[in-house]
Amino acid sequence: MAAISNLNIDQGTDFEVSVSLFDKDLNPFDLREYVLDAENIPTFQTPGTYPVIEGQIRKSFNSIKSYEFDIQVIDAINGVVVLRLPYTVSNTMKPGRYIYDIEVKSFNVVIGQPMVERILQGNILLSGNVTKLI
Question: Which residues contact 86 (CB under 8 A, 6 or more apart)?
């Protein structure tokens, strides 16, 4: 089951938070099996594995429109990542409540199938922006 963390974000600002990720046994999520290249595309270090971290924000589970976090691995051994939402994205979002989750997608070589594990989820309160910079 995913950890729950609710976030408050101000519309039209750069948002950044450091998050420690844990596996289902509550051990730090080891991200050493891959690194991200300059274009933020996974470069796989171990044959047969391809963990990818993705995070989306939506108004509701059924919403078609989604926004994506920029995710950067800071400490691969201890599963520490930074979630970023640039002002160029938060400025296009309407104030209000949203939901989000962060998932790790990998390939299990033992069973020969892809696996998806949700490791973090929660609500977002996006506060409206009063000051409009030109």
Answer: 14, 70
